[in-house]
């Protein structure tokens, strides 16, 4: 293997979190096909890990391991590889650098948890370090936005208000640590298909089109009971329309004591809020034995965005 062009550490591992949307308000499709969003993201303790090793100039390769690895391409359709190429191009290092990426996945594929976006965010940061580029996570935001609507949030993490098509993110004043049970679907849902179904169902976006004051107050309060009553997702109806068992799953979680239940992003993962760690663990166990989902996981939020391990 050739020496890296720029001085940098031999191998860098970055981990980036999954997200859920505490609120996801969706407006009618824009001229570019994307939908305007008013959302609040929360990063939760379920992570992708991306390891970058310098490779010969012009070589960009990728291996994917872990959860759902067999469902993902390892060529240029993969967002992590696209992130690496975009960074090289943007830094005018095209043809001078290369990288071998290994993704260790924990976030299910096509789950509404932004796993692919987490891969891209982690790849941007890992490549920047491995190529010795002097870039902070905020310097990578414009590139992140070009890669996908949820990638900028995966870089910052925490709790943040998102607008535009989701790519404009501003950290939110948030208090507390929330305990969630996530329930994963037996199959994935395609994000474009859920947005298309949303259009077909005839959306009624909120007016004014913004995140509600009640939700922001709940996030500031740190009180899970308040937050539980404010979870709302305009993509929930189309997701349930495409996968009716999600309605049954949400109700099962409420019956098991969840203080809030919502489809995450475009689904099919459902997020259930509990008042304490033990209540959330009990929820994951109850939902897991309900037979209504593939598996469950206890997570907490907020957690930081993409970081070196
Ligand atoms: O930005 P990203 O590549 O993650 O979006 C995937 C797809 O989801 C888009 O091609 C589009 O169909 C849909 N989408 C949308 N409006 C958004 C975000 C995503 O319609 N705000």
TrEMBL record:
Task: List the catalytic activities from the record.
Answer: 4-CDP-2-C-methyl-D-erythritol + ATP = 4-CDP-2-C-methyl-D-erythritol 2-phosphate + ADP + H(+)
Domain GHMP kinase C-terminal: start-end pairs: 218-283
User: Tell me, which GO biological process terms does this entry list?
Assistant: isopentenyl diphosphate biosynthetic process, methylerythritol 4-phosphate pathway; terpenoid biosynthetic process
Q: Which GO terms describe its molecular function?
A: 4-(cytidine 5'-diphospho)-2-C-methyl-D-erythritol kinase activity; ATP binding
Q: What class of enzyme is it?
A: transferase
Q: What are the residue boundaries of the GHMP kinase N-terminal domain, all occurrences included?
A: 78-158
UniProt xrefs under HAMAP family = IspE (MF_00061)
Annotated family: Belongs to the GHMP kinase family. IspE subfamily.
Its protein name is 4-diphosphocytidyl-2-C-methyl-D-erythritol kinase
Q: Which organism is it from?
A: Microlunatus soli
